Amino acid sequence: MTDALVLIDPSASSLELADLGSAQLPVDDLSAHRGDGIFETVLVRVDEPSGDAVVVARDRHFARFRDSASALDLPDPDPALWNRALDTVIAEVRAQDPESREFGVRYTFSRGLDSPRGWAFGVPIGEAVLRARAEGISAISLDRGYDAYLGGKAPWLLIGAKTISYAINQAAGRYAAERGADEALFVSHDGIVLEGPTSNLIIRRGDRLLTPDPAAGLLWGTTQRLIFDHAGELGLGADYADLRLDDIRTADGAWFVSSMRTAVALTSLDGAPISRDDALTRALQQIIGTG
Fold it and tell me: Helix or strand or coil: residue 195?
């Protein structure tokens, strides 16, 4: 992968190309020191035969970015500045690696120290992602530690914001891996299915796609909403619902969906196999790839 990095000064509305391999962030920056910041990761695909780079769900990601900034009382990010940063990273990645046809870009907004700062850089699509798309993944359920719908009563928990405080998410992934699973599935303390550490969950039940209500205590997914927008093209309805673990185990298909992995089939949960719908998996991946 390339070393494309853009540093963003929101106060001056300026960008600067920098070396991804060199030190850039002071250790007392509040993003590093306290996890006080937000981020988004977008999937970029090169359209054939035009050769144009397409950012999947660009506007949805930025809308969520602004919502996260508001939840953290960060300054409202300027769309023109952040889009310019995103496009600059895309251009750098393609200049350094003209054969690249798919990659990600992560952009981050930190409270900084004396003033906010931001950055954006290229992210490769790894073999693990490609394997998950092709083969699916297994998961174990983990208690998230709070009851469903707590966020409405405790907004300071930032349950619906995409912050860079991902220590719990990373710990959940390691815990699952130590127990032989590929992924974790968070469940509220009162038994409502929520999300994966870095993904949303969608199931199929008959002719309907179902996903947990974001208000239950999860991040509203850009990829999940893209799929729901196109569900009618697949002859399917789409709804938000409170789901329990038995709903997942008995589903006609289940998927973890996210920007980089797109849609990956959930093949088993807590050791119990889940029905697979490989044709729908391919259709969902196609929707996301052209979204």
Answer: coil
